[in-house]
Design a protein that fits this description.
By secondary structure, the chain is an alpha/beta fold. It folds into four domains: about 1-145 and about 250-295, FAD/NAD(P)-binding domain, CATH 3.50.50; about 155-245, D-Amino Acid Oxidase, subunit A, domain 2 (D-Amino Acid Oxidase, Chain A, domain 2), CATH 3.30.9; about 310-380, no CATH class; about 385-659, no CATH class. It contains 22 helices and 17 strands. Strands 1, 2, 8, 9, 10, 11 and 17 form a seven-stranded mixed sheet that branches. It has a seven-stranded mixed sheet with strand order 6-5-13-14-15-12-16. Helix 15 (about 465-490) crosses helix 16. It is globular, with a radius of gyration of 29 Å. Mean pLDDT is about 90; it is low at about 295-300.
Length: about 650
């Protein structure tokens, strides 16, 4: 099997820029490189644009692929200079030809026309396959289009149709461009024209729509034709380009294996609210190439993710919510922006290099009520779309108040609610493993294998309750941590296990007396730790958890820590039920729903036979000791550990393959 240092999945702009940066750093001759690209890259399929000052590295290093530049923008109030900025165009064929020329000049670079159809991680390498061929690589740069799972409402699209036209007479000024001309019918969306002249008679004229529905080609053609004919221009269409760009903050794919690195759209390098990506891909290429030059080797176990949560993401979130649900508001917002701010300052804002003071001044001049509506509506949408992030805290606060007011009756009522929810989606989310990982023909074999693993777990408990308990805690910590961090956007093997261990500590240590009672029933030695040590461990865990939430700037993480600290005052069964049912099971349920595009009803119906089977099995095996709640608690623990182990394996596989 052929082995390579680097494998490129796709050779579009993102990976092409990375290859050029490796060549600029004189690294290509030291690396054995495999390129898998299904397209011949012969057509001008994209036009990339960006802005930068004349001394920016992107301008100096890519000078030979820049096809045109503009330094003046036409606005509703007249012409405006971009000051020290210039707006540049790159035709994709120029970039592709440069990349192919570089690749062909190195014998150690193998370029294969084909798409990857298999990717497996092994201890010593990542295995790639295409058709009948297989290769081993040490590091993969993956630019394949991401599968976007938009959690709240429809996906906003930036769809466009552009014509390269030639006029019969001089009309345009080559260095003057029009970026957003809203003087066209809006059709219930945000629609505009932009014009990039490349000569007095030539220009790229493009119509763009922001909205949940793509721009129909016939409608775009009519608007383009009317736009050009209205000033009395006679034109010929030289070339047409069209495309659709997802406007989302959920495009980034973070692989759990540090050797597989996303690039381009897959790395979230497309600005969610504008579609601009070229400059961010250029800067990302420099960052990645510097890592290769330094021979940085990250362990996927120790890899710490970076949080992308900042105020600019928050701004993008508000605007996307408007474009998603009130797309006809876009015209007023964008026209107000360019009417009250200089284009050079807007570009600085879009580069995320503006000051907070300027941003406050900018928003004050925009339709403020529309953004306040977006803030309130997006919060409600978030609450509905992500119940696992707020329901545990809300239920915990309610339970804490209820226990104080009605201490005699409320505990059993709270636990009854949690048991009902457990059978509603807690057990069903695990019962869906059969549909998630086996087709109809293999389903019986899958069920038998599943039951066999459960039997092995029960036998382990029978042989040694201590080993059974320790194993259950270890793989539960891993699974709980993996599910939470996938939900929060921080896939990391080591961090998952650390977080899972911490949350179990936050649940079990404050309830050590109840834990020991259950252990005694199961014949396991009590955990007799000094109270000072237990309290210190709880405080340290709480402090570390809050610090990590602040370090990663993760609100869900901080909310989870607050919830876990509040459950210390509730009974153990209630505290564990709140986490397991309202946070873990809800997250897992939604992950399956997004991954397979199922509805809630479909999931319940698919899981129903398995859920009934699980309940019947539990009642049959543990039908004795009906009057002992402690005995039932210990039986339920064994039962939960038995159904958990195969479920953990299959959910981990789902996260690896689909998230």
């Amino acid at each position: 099997m052929n082995r390579y240092d680097i494998g490129f999945l796709g050779m579009g702009a993102a990976n092409g820029l990375l290859l050029l940066e490796l060549e600029r750093k004189n690294l290509l001759h030291t690396l054995k490189i495999l390129i898998l690209e299904p397209d011949a890259k012969l057509k001008n399929d994209k036009t990339y644009c960006f802005w930068a000052d004349s001394e920016h590295k992107i301008r100096t290093e890519l000078r030979d692929v820049l096809s045109h530049q503009w330094d003046t923008i036409a606005t509703a109030d007249g012409l405006e200079s971009l000051e020290d900025q210039h707006y540049y165009m790159v035709e994709s064929t120029a970039l592709y030809n440069k990349v192919k020329s570089v690749a062909q000049s190195y014998e150690n670079i193998v370029w294969i026309r084909g798409a990857v159809d298999g990717l497996k991680t092994r201890t010593d390498a990542v295995e790639l396959s295409s058709g009948d061929y297989t290769w081993e690589v040490q590091q993969v740069f993956d630019s394949r289009p991401p599968r976007i799972k938009e959690p709240m409402g429809p996906l906003v699209l930036q769809s466009f149709v552009g014509w390269r036209v030639e006029l019969q007479e001089d009309y345009w000024t080559p260095n003057e461009m029009t970026l957003m001309d809203f003087n066209i019918p809006q059709n219930g969306f945000t629609q505009f024209m932009y014009v990039l002249p490349t000569g007095t008679k030539e220009a790229l004229v493009e119509m763009t729509r922001f909205g949940s529905e793509p721009l129909p080609h016939e409608l775009a053609s009519n608007h383009l034709r009317n736009y050009l004919l209205s000033p009395g221009l006679s034109f010929d269409i030289v070339h047409e380009e069209r495309g659709t760009i997802p406007m989302t903050q959920y495009a980034e794919v973070k692989d759990q294996d540090a050797r597989i690195i996303s690039t381009g759209a897959r790395a979230g390098k497309i600005k969610a609210t504008t579609g601009y990506a070229f400059k961010s891909m250029f800067e990302h290429a420099k960052e990645l190439a510097s890592g290769i030059a330094q021979e940085r080797k990250e362990s996927s176990w120790l890899r710490l993710p970076k949080s992308e949560m900042d105020r600019f993401n928050f701004y993008d979130h508000l605007l996307l919510h408007i474009l998603k649900h009130k797309p006809h508001w876009g015209k007023e917002i964008f026209e107000s922006l360019f009417a009250t701010q200089r284009a050079s300052k807007v570009f600085q804002f879009l580069d995320e290099k503006s000051s907070v003071k300027w941003e406050l001044s900018m928003f004050a001049r925009l339709p403020v009520l529309k953004f306040l509506w977006a803030l309130a509506a997006s919060f409600i949408a978030f609450v509905v779309a992500k119940p696992s992030r707020w329901a545990p805290l809300l239920f915990t606060v309610f339970a804490s108040i209820a226990v104080v007011l009605l201490p005699t009756y409320i505990t059993y009522g709270l636990q009854a609610i949690l048991v009902f929810l457990l059978f509603l989606y807690g057990i069903p989310h695990g019962a869906l493993d059969g549909y998630s990982h086996a087709n109809k023909d293999r389903l019986p074999k899958f069920i038998l294998r599943y039951c066999f693993i459960m039997l092995l777990v029960v036998l382990f408990w029978a042989a040694s309750p201590v080993i059974g308990l320790v194993a259950f805690l270890v793989y539960s910590a891993w699974h709980f941590g993996e599910t939470d961090l996938r939900e929060w956007g921080f896939p990391s093997i080591g961090l998952s296990f650390l977080w899972g261990t911490m949350l179990l500590a936050m649940i079990l240590l404050p309830h050590l007396g109840e834990v020991n009672t259950v252990l005694e029933v199961m014949g396991i030695t009590r955990v007799d730790w000094p109270a000072e040590f237990v309290n210190m461990a709880i405080r340290m865990t709480l402090t570390l958890g809050l610090f990590m939430g602040l370090w990663f700037r993760s609100i869900p993480w901080i909310v989870a820590m607050v919830t876990l600290s509040l459950t210390a005052t509730l009974p153990l069964a209630t505290a564990f039920g709140i986490y397991f049912v309202l946070q873990h099971s809800l997250s897992g349920w939604n992950h399956l729903k997004l991954s397979h595009k199922w509805t809630n009803l479909e999931m319940w119906m698919k899981a129903l036979p398995f859920t009934i089977g699980a309940v019947v099995l539990f009642l049959l095996v543990f039908r004795f000791d009906k009057n002992s709640m402690l005995a039932w608690s210990s039986y339920f623990l064994v039962f939960l550990s038995a159904i958990s182990l195969p479920h953990i394996y299959f959910m981990s596989k789902l996260y690896k393959d689909r998230f």
